[in-house]
Fold this sequence. Notes:
This protein is of the alpha+beta class. The chain folds into two domains: about 50 residues, no CATH class; about 140 residues, no CATH class. Helix 3 packs antiparallel against helix 4.
Amino acid sequence: MTEGYYISINDREEGPYTLEELLGMHLELDTMVLSPLGGDWQRASDLPELFDYFEAQGFYFPTEDNLAGFWWRLLAYVIDSVIVSNLLSLVTGDITAPIYKKMLDNTLTKEDMPLFFQVTLMNFLVFAFYNAICEATPLQGSPGKKICRLVVVDTDGRRLSMGRALLRNLSKFLSQIVFLVGYLAILWDDHKQAWHDKIARTYVLVRNR
């Protein structure tokens, strides 16, 4: 064990520092730190005592304690569905309202199917881009997730790039196509990941603040 913390910058060791001094520095996720609590150099992002420091900067690291469960994620989805549905109804209500009415009345005909599939595809794409754009911003999640104190991150706790956010949300097609099993996987997966989380290598976490 060492006394105090040491950091490695450009292959040069600096220290020792107290934890308070360390927290006052501009640490990167990949800054190598030698902790008095450990016997080897570690990335700063791997030290539990620095989690709050990085969380204040918008980094959230997946741990067993902060993985979001199925029901919180479902609640966020319901909130977002209400938001997106209301926005879409303002723009496309004249087109979609008759189809939705026929769906409720169970009176869809073969002639309605092309329009039905177009409306379904449009809803999926709008919802996918809505979520992807939100996840790639400092919000790190949709308004529904914000309300439920959830964020979406990559394996290093970083905010998603737009490309990864799009991959994640377009992959939801696979999660829902087989009787929603891809979503239900959250209930039994060790990392509480849906299929689209596995594909994009992302996690949904509960924020501490």
